[in-house]
Design a protein that fits this description.
With 379 residues, the chain is α+β, with helices and mostly antiparallel strands. 28% of the residues lie in helices and 19% in strands. The chain has 4 domains: 10-44, no CATH class; 110-184, no CATH class; 194-285, no CATH class; 290-374, no CATH class. It is built from 10 helices and 14 strands. A hairpin with a 6-residue loop joins strand 3 (132-139) and strand 4. Helix 1 (10-23) runs parallel beside helix 2 and helix 7 (293-305) runs parallel beside helix 10 (356-367).
Length: 379
């Protein structure tokens, strides 16, 4: 009779560890193959619970699996404290291992959407950090957390859902930076007037005695950081204007855009809201309406040095008019309005803006240059 006991194989032990991780259970490492088989059979009989509130997508979860309620709420940053570290046998004291950063005390995270990326299932969720909220994209089981946005306390909750939809609808599948230790801390920054060497509080001087400056302006939903306009000789209070208004008066993107970005970074954790400035920057980035100053300079250079007339440029663009004798000429009034020489009907002054499609038409067909040469750089 053969009494040899067969030890548990490496394959059985690996399978046991995989089942334990999946079911959230523990096991005593078996010494024999028969014990390993019994333990595998026991773990495989565990019944998963589907469609839990924390997993709207229906991912399998077990009764002993880790859930958000167990790692959030009061007491999550508690830890053991020893006045004197225990001595080792040789009499020396063991060095205390570096403590991992404790997450801020916050309420339960809320799953906004579920999607797949690179074959892995991920959650887009909002995590309250102090009075602010982080919008994070991470694996469903945790890990590989990417920061989408940080919402200020005065922003409506609907903005979180809106950001998640915009992120998932982007065909480029943008890759966001990882969540850092600083993102999980609700710190109160001190006053910051300079960021990366940019004096964002300095005024910008425009024509006709107008000055533009970033200031905290009270509003219906609290104090917000806005661009304001001042006029020399006018002793009234400055009034808030949009970033696009400032760029239009200066007919340049810089330095107003750089100052806006610096001011937002300086007030990242401040009680002063930067939501309006952030939305204005986002609209500016994706807007098809751009400044026409460079295009106007190219048209004026062509008419001054090459002998081309504005009528010829308009004809090349397909803007043709005919008089009583059926003689054709270019619609110069259309061209003058597009490049900011003449105002639109009823407008007090010419517009500094033009649609990118119209800019490309005038640049390619009218002037024979690339649209990039006629665009004002935002860098």
């Amino acid at each position: 009779m053969n009494t040899t006991v067969k030890p548990a194989s490496a394959k059985q032990l690996r399978y046991l560890r995989a089942l334990a991780n999946k079911t959230g259970t523990t096991f005593t490492p078996p010494t024999t193959s028969r014990e390993a088989s019994r333990e595998i059979t026991r773990m495989r009989r565990l019944t998963p619970s589907l469609d839990t509130p924390d997993d709207p997508g229906g991912e399998e979860r077990y009764a002993t699996a880790l859930v958000e309620e167990e790692i959030a709420g009061y007491g999550i940053d508690a830890h053991w404290r020893h006045t004197n570290p225990p001595k080792q046998r040789n009499g020396s004291r063991r060095s205390k291992p570096p403590a991992a950063p404790a997450p801020s005390r916050h309420a339960k995270a809320i799953v906004l959407a579920t999607h797949e990326q690179g074959g892995a299932r991920r959650h887009v969720l909002t995590i309250p950090i102090g009075s602010a909220r982080l919008i994070v994209d991470r694996l469903t089981g945790g890990g590989d957390a990417r920061l989408l946005a940080r919402l200020d306390p005065d922003e409506p909750p609907e903005n979180a859902t809106l950001i998640a939809r915009m992120y998932l609808a982007d065909p480029r599948q943008p890759r966001c930076r990882p969540v850092t230790r600083a993102d999980l801390q609700a710190s109160k920054p001190g006053p910051a007037h300079h960021t990366n060497g940019i004096a964002w509080q300095a005024p910008l001087i425009a024509g006709l005695g107008a000055r533009f400056q970033l200031q905290a302006v009270p509003g219906d939903r609290g104090t917000g950081l806005r661009w304001t306009e001042h006029h020399d000789g006018n002793h009234g209070a400055p009034h808030a204007v949009s970033l696009r208004h400032v760029l239009g008066r200066l007919e340049s993107y810089q330095p107003a855009v750089a100052m806006t970005n610096a001011a937002i970074r300086a007030h990242e954790n401040s009680e002063t809201s930067t939501a309006t400035l952030r939305s204005e920057l986002a609209r500016l980035e994706y807007s098809p309406i751009v400044l026409n100053r460079r295009l106007r300079e190219h048209v004026q250079q062509a008419t001054d040095s090459t002998g081309v007339t504005m009528s010829m440029i308009a004809i090349r663009c397909g803007r043709i008019k005919r008089d009583r004798n059926a003689r054709e000429s270019g619609e110069t009034s259309w061209l003058a309005r597009r490049i900011g020489i003449a105002p639109e009907a009823g407008a007090p002054r010419p517009t500094p803006w033009i649609h990118t499609d119209v800019l490309a038409l005038i640049a390619r067909d009218g002037l024979g240059i690339t649209p990039a040469e006629a665009e004002v750089s935002q860098a």
